[in-house]
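re: that chain from earlier
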Amino acid sequence: MGFLKQTTPEIDFPTWSQGTRAEKIKPMARHWAEVGFGTPVALHLFYVVKIALYILIAWAVVITTPGIDGFFDVTSWYNEPIVFQKVVLYTMLFEVVGLGCGFGPLNNRFFPPMGSILYWLRPKTIRQPPWPNRIPLTKGDSRQPIDVLLYAALLVTLVVALFSSGTGAIPELDTTVGVLPDWEIWTIVVLLAAAGLRDKTIFLAARGEVYGALTVTFLFAGVDMILGAKLIFLVIWMGAATSKLNKHFPFVISTMMSNNPIWRSPKIKRKFFEDFPEDLRPGRRSRWIAHFSTAVEGLVPIVLFFSGGGWLTAVAAIIMLIFHFGILSSIPMGVPLEWNVFMMFGVVALFVGHSDIGLTDLQSVWPILLFLVSAGTVIIGNLVPRKVSFLPGMRYYAGNWDTSLWCLTPAASAKIESGIVAIASMPAAQLERFYGSAEAAQIPLYMGYAFRSFNSHGRALFTLAHRAMAGCEESGFVLTDGERITSTAMGWNFGDGHMCNEQLIASLQRHCRFEPGEVRIVILDAQPIHRQTQEYRLVDPAVGEFERGFVKVSDLVTRQPWDDQIPVTVTWQAESRESAG
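^ sequence. v structure.
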């Protein structure tokens, strides 16, 4: 990796550019296995500085609280309940403004490096209500003044809370500073819910399943607040671990480790694969790390929750700190960096600072009810992944997500550029602008394809792309991840295919009026935890769905990244494929 320049594969471009998509992906996949994306060191340092600023600003906000004294006297205030509250709300603000997950070039955001606030304070941008036919006053897909007002009010209320004083002494929590006023917490909860019901993107970007749920615990009295927060952390860890009980997760490990800036040696990175360069399935080392880390994430938090202090709590806390630092130090694509810093803070503030608070201290049923709602969402998300975003479903980095691949003609891309209110250009245009030419942009474009192909579902996406474009000249289409379309159209995405399904397709069709054959879309559902198949749908926005079926997970995990000929089982097909264009 160069300091300022990306390390790219050494290829004969004229010869390479004449190959098939699979032939073009092959050298990119081999390069990724040895180097990763080749991200310049300066870019990694940029993200490190961003993490440092996140911590420094949070620290400064905490110190402004009356009764919290001593910038470096952390041991005197790290476990104050109001400190935890402010760190939660500060991180929610950080995320919902657009500075957290999905920020910057490592999420293919170049100009500008974020969307979020740039979109959500602007009328006429696209929004996605989660239940428009069930919740009154939420229909429509165009942002109205009320949406802008709700979002702006949420931001203002969060800022007000960050600089508020505590309510006074609470003996049962051993604090003289107290907690934030209930009216502020209620206002934030109501505004987040209202904004989220008008546009689920805002709720997901605020990481409502984490910071929203924790904010609800702030409404609980006394020790129930701490206990409720601990239970939410337990759901996050155990839900994520449960979601990784699949055949996909080792592919995440091998891909992440090959892109890890700490492992600089290509020789080390090759060891994460079965037999470089011919067999780029996850190797024994990747499989071992996957199984071990899943066990850590699923079992150690139980010890942390029930140990009640002492050396056992200390050991469990240290293990979880190392666990999250391991993810953080890899600077993973999608960059959930501050989230991992926050989880590390939570380990110390809740489980070490209040290690004596457990289930026996429960004062009401509310923490248990919140736990059941959060855990129930995780269960539904794993059983019926199409119905639940991978964020509240806690399928973080499980390798098992809803995904989509959009096949766009130049005419379709132009219609998107002109038909919607957006800040960012289309992904291909951003790459061309960043890399200087359409030819130079081909390398990072196919490196992106290689990244997708390293994940097991990538094999299915590129296989199904052939079926989606059947009867058309494939060279006339540019293939783009659905999440990149979502970023352009809605201002935010964090690897979630749930946001680029039929709802977004319908919105774009209303705005852009694609002709039959201009856009072909592959929608691939995540694998339900109790089945070994993944269902797919092929859609032309102008005429609707024209094929559905499934692929077997066993076929995905035994193939190479460049294999785009995976067996497909068709369960329904339009009477005439010609009707799709």
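The first helix runs from residue 13 to 16.
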